[in-house]
Amino acid sequence: MPANRAAWSGRRIALVDALRGAALIGMIGYHLSWDLGYFRFIDGAIPLSPPFKAYANVVASTFLVLVGISLVLAREAGSGPSQALRRLSIIALAAAAVSLVTWYVFPENFIFFGILHCIVVSSVLAYPFVRAPPWLTGLAAIACLVLPKVIAEPAFDPPHFWWLGLGTRAPATFDYRPLFPWLGAVLAGVVVARATLAAAGKSPWLGWSPKSRPGKVLAWGGRHSLAIYLVHQPLLVGLLFVIAQVTGAGQESGSASFMRACETQCVGNGSDEVSCRAACACVFTELRTQGLWARALTRELSKDENDQIATITRGCTPKPMEDPVP
Q: pTM (2 decimals)?
C-alpha cells in the first residue's frame, strides 16, 4: 500500500482524468474526420488512410491503458467488486445503446464490439491481474498483443468469433476493438499502475491538481468521459447535417474521386466518355444501395464482396470493364 494512500483514497486522481480528457479530444477529432468524410466535405478515404488508422489506434490504446490504471487505483482505494460491477453495468448499458442505435441507423456497419464493449469484457478479464505479480501480468499483456499475429485463422472468420479478433479479416463496422490485441493494452495499464504505485510515496503525481484552465477542462472532460462519448457524435452529425443543408457544400466531393478514376479507367478500356459516365454513375449508385460503398473505400473486401462488385460493374456497362473500386 502506498505511503500516501490516505491522501487520495476515495478521491478521483486528477492526472488520470486529465489524460483521459486528452484522449477524449483525440477521439472526437478522429470521429470528426469520419463525419466530414460521410458528409463529403473531405475525401471519405482520408479517415481510412494508414496515418489516420495509426492515430485512432493511439487514441484507443490510451483509453484502454487508462482503464487498466483505473482498475488498480480503484482497488487500492478500497473499491470492492460491487462498486466495480456497478461501474461496468453502466458502461455495458451504454455499449448496448451504441449497438442498438448504430444497428438502426447503419445496419450494414453497426458497432457490435467497439471500445465500450471492449472495456467491459477486458475489465472483467483484467480484474484478477490487479493483485497478480506484475511480471505475470506483463507476460499476459505481451501474449494478448501478439496473439492475433500468431493466430489468424479462417476458423475464426464466422461472425460469432469476430469479438475475439483472431480471424483473417476485419468485419465491416464503424468501431472495432476486439478482445485481442486490445486486452493487452488494459493489462499494460495494470502493470504501469502497479509499478508506479510502488514508488507512490516518493512521487507527487497522485496529489497533482490542475492549475491552468486547459488542465481543468481536460480533467473535467475525463470525469465525464462516458457522457461526452455518448453525446458528441449526435452533436457533430447534427451540426454537419445542418451546414450541408444550408450551404450545399460537400454533397459531391465524396463521389468525385471515384467518378474520375472510374471514367478514366473505362475510357482507357476503349469505351466512349458518355457511356463511361453513365456506367460509373450506375456503379456508384449500386454500391451505395447495396451497402458496399464503405467497404469498397477500405479495400478490405472479401471474395464474395469482390464478386458482388464485379457483378454490379458488368450489369452497369455493356462493355467489359474492371472493377472501379476507388
A: 0.77
